[in-house]
Amino acid sequence: MCCPVAAKQTGRADTADMLTKRAAHQANNASETTMETTKQSSLHKIRLLYFFFRFSTGSLIPFMPLFMSSCGFTHEEIGRLQAIRPIVTMVSAPFWGALSDRTGKKKLILISTFLISAICRLSCAFFKDDMQQFAVALCLTSVFYAAVTCLLDSIVVSSLNSKERLNFGKLRLWGELGNGISSTLMMNVCSNEAYGFEHLFVVHGITAAVAVVFMILCTPSNQYNQNQAKQMTKANGSCNNDIIDWRRSLLDVFTNAEIASILGAVAVTGCSISVLENFSYINIKSLYKAHGQENVLGQEISMYRVFHTCGGMLTWYYSGTWQKKLGPNGVIIASLCCVPLIFFLYAGVGDGLDVRTKIGFAMAEATRSAIFAAMWSSATIRVNMICPPHMTAVLQAIMDASYRGVGSTVGAYVGGFLCKKIGIANTFTLIGKGFVSLLCGALFLSSQVKSNAPK
């Protein structure tokens, strides 16, 4: 028979054990809640960072071709000047990526390069009468700006887990929102006779300073990035970042067929969008001027920018859903197939400047931003998944160089040459037809390869 005292002590022990387990469970719940709250707070900061960063760049960069045109530069000269940034990016971006990966000081490099690039870009306003000095200012701007976008995306994507990476587009859409708001407002400013392009440089300088503040507040510390780099290196089989065979790593990257295909698709998209970015607004401006509607140009281009923003934001938001259904590579292929549509819409689908033409311009703006968002989101996520863990910033920089270096350089030169020879609208139509022919040829070759494949 059990002793009553012993039974009572056993009951007290069981009760104490239950209370201990309950307290531990509550502590775990509280810890998880705190971690989730901290994570959400961090994501909110990233959203604000993208918003102010793109607000700053959107206040001036989209209007540089118009500013060059107002300075008296020809279409061919504008093409050459706009080719400076992609050429320099192609050379500089991999250097910045390698430097940040090897040192782990991504935050310091991000902030310093963005600040210096903004100062150099502001200096362009003082050299509008001298093309050579203007070109030097653009060159210096491009050297430092080459590090910014790739580093920012690399820092953000690396801080997310595998599930959260599919929501990268939802973070990036805040940048599209900031870009849309600033470019819409600034279009009204630069088209207003009381202001002009000079005020765009003032706004860009102020908002760039705000963006720097948010970079300081919202990005992980240099110590965090260094620890993260060490953890990635250790997980990759090496405990010392200095003994990594970087040449071998680069060779492995460039001999990877999937990575090479993604970089090629990004370069082709960059080439196409470069032609449109440099000459679409100039074409629209000349069309409005020819039909005596130059007085409403600023207002209507602002409306087109609203469509541009909406198209990009919707695509960034649903990019994760589309990648789940089609896969990142499927989204990239679908984006390439939509490229010719933009050229035909920008070339003009109506007679003169009627409603159909204006609707076409609006659709072209929305489609252009949607294609970039779909392509960049899918390529960024997929490349980050398959690249060596110690080379995330390098490969992101190489992808940026493919888009803004190889692609944009070819687009600026070819676009400037063709626009001078046959006109902007005819150039858009010609490139659109050529793109359709290339896609049909690629589809035919793909079907032939599949039909000849052994069963």
TrEMBL record:
Membrane topology category: Multi-pass membrane protein
TM helices/strands, residue ranges: 48-68, 108-128, 134-157, 195-217, 331-349
Gene Ontology CC: one annotated term: membrane
Keyword Transmembrane helix tagged: yes
Key words of the record: Membrane, Transmembrane, Transmembrane helix
Gene3D superfamilies membership: MFS general substrate transporter like domains
InterPro entries xrefs: MFS_assoc_dom (IPR024989), MFS_MFSD6 (IPR051717), MFS_trans_sf (IPR036259)
Major localisation: membrane
Subcellular location: Membrane
Major facilitator superfamily associated domain ranges (all copies): 45-429
Family: Belongs to the major facilitator superfamily. MFSD6 family.
Protein name in the entry: MFS transporter
The organism's taxonomic lineage, starting at the top: Eukaryota, Sar, Stramenopiles, Ochrophyta, Bacillariophyta
